Amino acid sequence: MRGINSGVAKNKMQSKIHFISGLPRSGSTLLAGILLQNPRLHAGMSSPVGGMYRALEESMSRKNEAAIFISDQQRQSILRGVFSNYYGEIDSKEVIFDTNRIWCTKLPALSRLFPEARVICCVRSISWIVDSIEKLARQNAFELSGLFGFDAGSTVYTRVNSIAKSSGLVGYALDALREAYYGAEANRIMLLEYDDLCRDPEASIARLYDFIGQPRFKHDFDNVEYEADNFDLQLGAKGLHTIRRKVEWIERPTILPPELFHRFQNDAFWRRT
């Protein structure tokens, strides 16, 4: 009986799981808040599943001398089990979106674990992503942020350099997005531009539903809610996951020095290809 139940859970998760990934400060929290209005869906900010997944990968690698006793089939079952066990508490939801920037680097594995899964990649001008992060840092002027290693002596230049490098918040996500975009599984991803989501949310969300093969839902784009104050305060980045109630496009000038803003203007590679 246990084997039958586990098989049912496996098949059910394969047909209901999708992913949100892409670039930071590009609308993933806003997207989660919108999707949560649909009672059939579950979505949220970055979950711990990505970290657990990566830890399991490392523990089952040759770094562990006992890994020779783990078959590929066992690896797949264990990794798939992370999702089914973590989301077992919300089994009533028909579709689950797990959010993590790591998923852009795991498409070869995800395509085998969940053949029907799709990845929504939130994207935005890199210059405006960096500007948004700097704006958040200045709003929390009396709180050092973990986004920059809690460095009390940082400047806008050292802050930007720290997040732009390949191991940084923005640099890592951009490299991961390139990997997914140019990879063999690129047909599994949908790029969702932050600008488009804010300017025409109805059309953007309709395109998302069509991409994952789900019926469309009538969303209220004037009353979107999502916040994670406890997580943001712990990171020293209050407001990181707080969104405005109304989905709309708001123009504003950049707060970055000109050379920093222009430094990233050619990095939106998906707009050129």
The total of helices stands at: 12
Number of strands: 5
Uncertain stretches of 5 or more adjacent residues = 1-6
Give the number of domains: 1
State mean pLDDT (0 to 100 scale): 88
Order of helices and strands: HEHEHHEHEHHHEHHHH
Based on the structure, what is the oligomeric state of the protein chains?
A: single chain
Largest beta-sheet characterization = 5 strands, parallel
Q: What proportion strand?
A: 5-15%
Helix content: 40-55%
* Termini Cα gap: 51 Å
Shape: globular
CATH topology: Rossmann fold
Report the CATH superfamily.
Answer: P-loop containing nucleotide triphosphate hydrolases
**Gross CATH architecture:** 3-Layer(aba) Sandwich
Q: What is the CATH C level class, in words? A: Alpha Beta
Structural class: alpha/beta
Strand line-up of the largest beta sheet: 2-3-1-4-5
Our Rg estimate from Cα atoms comes to 19 Å
What order do the helices and strands come in, and which of them pair?
Layout: H1 2-16, E1 17-22, H2 28-35, E2 41-42, H3 49-59, H4 72-86, E3 95-99, H5 107-113, E4 119-123, H6 126-139, H7 156-164, H8 169-182, E5 189-193, H9 194-199, H10 201-212, H11 229-235, H12 258-263
Parallel strand pairs: 1-3, 1-4, 2-3, 4-5
Helix pairs in contact: 3-4
Describe this structure in words.
The N terminus is likely disordered. This protein has a 5-stranded parallel sheet, sandwiched between helices. It is built from 12 helices and 5 strands. The chain has about 270 residues and is an alpha/beta fold. It has one domain: Rossmann fold. About 45% of the residues lie in helices and about 10% in strands.
